[in-house]
Amino acid sequence: MASSSSRVQPNWHAPSSAENNSNKPVLKLYNSLTKTKTEFVPKRPGHVSWYNCGPTVYDAAHMGHARTYLSMDIIRRVMESYFGYQVQFVQNVTDIDDKIILRARQQYLFNNLKNSTESLNNELIERVEKYWNDYATSKLSAVKGAASEATSDWTAFVAMMTPEALAKAVLVDEKFKMHFTALQASRAAIDVAKCALAQGNNAKQSAEVLLDTSQDIVSLALDKTEGEAVTDSKIFRELSSYWEDMYFKDMKALNVLSPSVKTRVSEFVPEIVTYVKKIIANGYAYEADGSVYFDTARFDGHEGHHYAKLEPKSKGDIALIEDGEGSLGTKLQGKRSQNDFALWKASKPGEPVWDSPWGKGRPGWHIECSVMASAVLGDNMDIHSGGVDLAFPHHDNELAQSEAHYNCPQWVNYFLHAGHLHVEGQKMSKSLKNFITIQEALKTYSPRQLRIFFLAHQWNTKMDFKQSGMQEAVGMETTMKNLFDNVAALSDRIRSDGSRGSTILPNGDISHRWRDDENELSTFFQERVDGVHFALCDSINTPVAMDEIMSLINQTNKYLVKGAAYVNIDLLEDITSWISRMMEIFGVEMGDNAKSNAGADKEFLMQCLRTLSSFRDKVRQLALDKKDPKEYLKLSDELRDVQLAELGVALDDQKDGTALVKILTPEEVKKARDEKLAQQAAKAAQAAAAKAQRLQKGWDRLQKGKKSPEDIEKERKQENPEMSKNQVKKLAKEMDVQKGLHSEYQKYEAFLKESGEPDSLEGYEAYLKHTK
Question: Which residues are CB-contacts of 104 (< 8 A; sequence separation ≥ 6)?
């Protein structure tokens, strides 16, 4: 036998994977540059360089913005916290843009007019009325005859605008309904103002109502005549600064992570000038009348370059090109081709200006993102993202001018586009004034509910923001929260009852709680973990991931039904801990990752102790007064349904006579209590109605017994003196029945005489109680 010193360590058998490594899922992203899901391979292992198109800050952020920024936030969180990448997330703020210039000028001019108006007068009414006619003539002109009919007889025109007629007009001009609504509101305000003035009411308040109601029409008119006189750059900065602050407040409310790097166009103008000069030097841009344009014809197909990589079919779409140039940019002259776009715009009166080699001007919209992204991320980045409505021309122009600047074949490796947002089936559009602001949405739904709703929709597909879908999200939230609350309550029970989660056998021994049910749930759990991983590898497919999580919750709830004396609390906590971690990755604060406030926790504890101390005092007094046991039960119910409910403590009565303790919010506990009381009240009302129906039926039957059998026989023979044999038999049966009814009625009469009860339903009810 070999000595111990000569023994060697045996060979180790390397484990083999249950699956072929070739089937192992890898992260793939839907790439707009390929229109397919492609494997994600970052330039630098473990790191992701990412630029996201930020907001143009001239108005309140709406749910269309949320569609992009919340969706990209979810993807970013998954990349960072699930796949473990270090993400450098760069996002811009566009604070130089045609929309900002127009909005700032119009708001400034409108406020000046409003502040300088001291009273309602004919001059003001005539002025607004002229603006109204100009607006109608201009904005309704796309629909044949609409402008002339509206300005000649508005009342008749409104009568003509049936829902069907309005729908047809919108097919011709999608903004027709918006213009019609503005004109209708303003026309009504003009008529009200005329009546007010005729009655001697010239108050400043009446003038303000007229102006406020007609603001869209008045602002546009003022800008046309006075806009060029607005030269103070502070006016433009103040508007964009205000809405930038409001945007980031909305993002914070939605729990959207802040960018790693935030850039503003106004801070990068020198870099933009340098960037444009390089594109000109490379032969892909030209100067004309103080503006600089990108030469799409020169670029496309030259030295391996391609224009409109993202949306080749949209190349040459004049409507999209003009929209991308902005309402002020389309008035510039000197383009060689209608496909060319402005890199630098020669400024006109009423616009902010910066110096450049081509004269005073300002940056074009598309060049802004190229310069800011390049300043931080360089000549190539892993991911660029934004809303799908920006794909052409904005993102295609970005790619073209950046690849022209660097003379490179590919500036972006993966382009991610968030899908369109619809509201109750209708396309949401800010330009059509058909939108819901984020603040408006948050008045109805919590940030957590909105994020769960977004998680239930794939980030790159169309999403319909509708009430029924939001109710499903609210239901998912409730289901998840109930699981966390129930497991927390069971955990507290098991850890405080001395069992340590073991089962006490009849002979006093103890047994573990890992049986077939636990094996089955554990296997199901691991399968769902794999399912979530596959879903997230599949272009961050959060709808499927959420389905896997909800399936696990439903299966766990079935297991929970067996109660504290049966369940394995370690397995339950493992499951809820994983779900909590996944929700935290998605940006949803729930379960273990929900925020806590130490100060509030201490105050909560003191409130609970004061409540229990008060309860003890009342119990002690009942005992000293030797009260009926029912008084103790009443006091216990009051503790559960009133005092503890106000603190957010729920006592969930169990079949074994004990209660599970849950820490919720006061609103949740009171809602559950009120729903329970409502159910009990409905049940009691139903029972009372059934009782009343039975009582009435019995009463009606009793009244039939007033007549004796002999009286019935006499009546029937008077009605039919010559009865057949069958009729005689039928009468005999009727008399037998009447005999019983009359006997019962005689007993009822005797009871009334003896008790003094009235001859009514109440008396009959007393009689029934007496006979029982």
Answer: 58, 230, 235, 236, 238, 239, 240
Q: How far apart are CA 295 and CA 484, in angstroms?
A: 60
Helix %, strand %, coil % of the chain (to 5): 60, 10, 30
pLDDT at 747: 87
> For residues 301 and 741, what is the distance between their CA atoms, to the nearest angstrom?
106
pLDDT, tens only, 69-112: 999 999 999 999 999 999 999 999 999 999 999 999 999 999 99
Q: How far apart are CA 67 and CA 55, in angstroms?
A: 12
Which element (helix H / strand E) includes 766?
Answer: helix 761-771
Range of lowest pLDDT (166-175, 400-409, 439-448, 693-702): 693-702
State CA 647 to chain mean position distance: 28
118 neighbors 204 (Cβ within 8 angstroms)? yes
d(CA 546, CA 554): 12
Q: How far apart are CA 333 and CA 166, in angstroms?
A: 36
CA distances from 114 to 111, 179, 218, 394 (A): 5, 22, 11, 37
Structure tokens that stand for 719 in this block: 């009605």
Most distant pair of Cα atoms in the chain: their distance? 128
| Helix or strand (DSSP H, E) at 452 | helix 447-455
Rounded-to-integer distance, Cα 405 and Cα 374, Å: 10
Q: Output the six-digit token pair for 507.
A: 């002979």
By CB neighbour count within 10 A (0-12 exposed, 13-18 middle, 19+ buried), where does 407 fall? middle
CA distance 206 to 452: 46
Cα distance between residue 573 and residue 593, in whole Å: 14
The sign one gets for the Cα dihedral 344, 350, 354, 355 is positive
- Tell me: the pLDDT tens digits for 177-204? 999 999 999 999 999 999 999 999 999 9
What whole-number distance in Å separates Cα of residue 616 and Cα of residue 59?
58
184 closest CA partner among 112, 128, 257, 132: 132
Beta strands 47-52 and 381-387, pairing class: parallel
The span from the CA of 265 to the CA of 371, in Å, is 9
- State the Cα–Cα distance between residues 454 and 498, nearest whole angstrom: 44
Helices (H) and strands (E) in the chain, counts: 28, 18
**Amino acid in position 409:** P
Per the CB < 8 A criterion, the answer to whether 305 and 294 are in contact is: no
Helices (H), 561-660: 569-585, 598-624, 629-638, 644-647
End-to-end CA distance of the chain: 96
Tell me what the mean pLDDT of segment 119-126 comes to.
97
Other CB atoms within 10 A of residue 529 CB:
16
Beta-ladder partners of 651: 661
Question: What's at 638, amino acid-wise?
Answer: E
Token pair 């300043």 is at which residue?
A: 375
405/282 Cα distance (integer angstroms):
7
Query: 121 pLDDT exceeds 70?
Result: yes
Q: Is 423 helix (H, G, I), strand (E, B) or coil?
A: strand
